[in-house]
Amino acid sequence: MESMPGEDIVFGRSAVMELLRSGRQVESLFVVREPEGLLLKISAIARDMGIPIKQVNRQKLDFMCAHGAHQGVVARISGHAYSELEDIYTLAGDSPLFVVICDGIEDPRNLGAIIRCAEAAGVHGLIIPKRRSVGLTGTVSKAAAGALAHLPVVRVTNLVATMDELKHRGVWFYAADMDGKSWCETDFSGSVGLVIGSEGAGVSRLVREKCDFAVSLPMRGKISSLNASVAAGIILYEVVRQKIAGGI
Q1: What is the per-residue pLDDT across 193-239, written as a single tens digit (0 to 9) for each?
Q2: Hey, what CATH topology would domain 9-77 get?
Q3: Which of 7, 35, 168, 196 is most solvent-facing, going by the fewest CB within 10 Å?
Q4: pTM for the complete prediction?
């Protein structure tokens, strides 16, 4: 398979077809707009496998491959295996569940930093959506600085349905939102699910409606918001502070 050094990609029609046949986890498929011939077959196979497909222009593919011979198709591969929800439950044991949901984080360094903070804070697992989100690429793994070896990351098709399942297990969800209650005045006792939204749009509407509370951080300076991973780290450690104070 042909891929550029340091990148989590495979490109070229034959190489991508063999990748799909290999059974290796594929994050997403990028196909030139108005595909034809073998590209249609590759797209159909990927669709049947549940792999997100994005139609882009050739300039985008040229950039991804550093002008390599992509033949109209690029696959982004996983740098780390995903876990299942059961792995989170197993890690938590009898302790109150402590999870993080990343709703649409697209910057791999941001996701990696959140994973690193979450593991350090004792989170039992992190959940990301299958679409509209970066996956566990090599860049994410590097930014996580080893945390992926200890923190289960689950990739799900439907965040809202997953939140419903976790609610049945007693989890209360807190959305990081500028219009929420101050983080230091919020009670984080019990099982906690912290929801961090995308870098631009924040928490999506349906996910926000499923949350029980909204939590905000005061902006005392001139800018209006913090980086997603910085906000996550601050709120996670308020949860930790309260757990320690409560003897957990």
Answers
A1: 999 998 778 899 999 999 999 999 988 888 777 889 999 999 999 99
A2: 60s Ribosomal Protein L30; Chain: A; (3.30.1330)
A3: 168
A4: 0.77
180: helix, strand or coil: strand
With the C-alpha atoms ordered 169, 174, 176, 177, is the resulting torsion angle positive or negative?
A: positive
Q: Which CATH number fits domain 85-245: 3.10.129.10, 2.60.40.10, 3.40.630.30, 3.40.1280.10?
A: 3.40.1280.10
List the chain domain ranges. 9-77, 85-245
Q: Which residues contact 177 (CB under 8 A, 6 or more apart)?
A: 197, 202, 203, 208, 214, 215, 216
Percent of the chain with pLDDT over 90: 49
Q: Which tens digits make up the pLDDT trace of 61-81?
A: 888 887 788 888 999 887 788
Q: Which of 44, 8, 6 is nearest to 25 (CA)?
A: 8
Asked if 154 contacts 125 with a C-beta cutoff of 8 angstroms, the reply is: yes
Helical pair 38-48 and 13-22, crossing angle rounded to 10 deg: 20
Report pLDDT for 3: 39
For 49-182, where are the alpha helices, taking DSSP H only? 58-64, 85-92, 108-120, 138-144, 159-168
Put the strands of the sheet holding 171-182 in their side by side order.
153-156, 125-129, 98-103, 191-197, 171-182, 213-216
Q: Pairing relation of β-strands 73-77 and 171-182?
A: unpaired
Tokens 């496998």 sit on residue: 49
Which string of b and e fits 213-231 if b means at least 16 CB within 10 Å? Answer: ebbbbeeeeeeeeeebbeb
